[in-house]
Design goal:
single chain; 160 residues; alpha+beta; Arc Repressor Mutant, subunit A; Alpha-Beta Plaits; 5 helices; 36% helix; elongated; sequence-specific DNA binding; WH-like_DNA-bd_sf; transcription regulation; DNA-binding; transcription
């Protein structure tokens, strides 16, 4: 589906339920959106095949698995040609510490979302990987003190 896709009310309710309750069975989803199980399954399969549902996964609690420090790092590149951007992007993909990378407008080129064990691990990542990456001109780091909202579901109510 394209970026301006139209969804009916049932599609939106189904997508909202899947975002909230990704492990629900087809029968449970069908009951929640008032569809028969077969009609529900057909809709879910259609949304999957069209790429609207990009995948399924578990949300892990970072601190429970030893990733106690979260940071956002803004990166500015020296050059902005296709080669420099490609080299940087290839590096970012290889770094496990980076869970998200976004190209930005404004004075910085990229925003990296990073999870590491502690400040020592962050220092190692910064000095050994990021600052040694080809084409990096400047970085600016901010550490997360507290997370106020961390719900990754998309705001489907805006589409109604």
């Amino acid at each position: 589906m394209s970026g301006d896709a139209q969804f009916d009310r049932t599609d939106l309710r189904l997508l909202a339920e899947i975002q909230q309750h990704g492990r629900a069975t087809n029968a449970e989803l069908a009951a929640r959106v008032n569809l028969s199980p077969s009609a529900c399954l057909r809709r879910v399969q259609r949304l999957e095949s069209e790429g609207v549902i990009a995948g399924y996964g578990a949300r892990l609690e970072p601190r429970r698995i030893g990733l106690g420090l979260q940071a956002f790092v803004r990166v500015q590149l020296e050059k902005h040609d296709q080669h420099a951007i490609g080299v940087f992007a290839d590096s970012v993909v290889e770094w496990d510490e980076v869970v998200a990378c976004h190209a930005l407008t404004g004075d910085m080129d990229y925003l990296l979302h990073i999870y590491v064990r502690d400040l020592e691990h962050f220092s190692s990542f910064l000095l050994d990987k990021l600052l040694n990456a080809a084409g990096v001109a400047d970085v600016n780091s901010s550490f997360v003190l507290r997370t106020v909202k961390d719900f990754r579901a998309l705001p489907l109510s805006q589409l109604e």
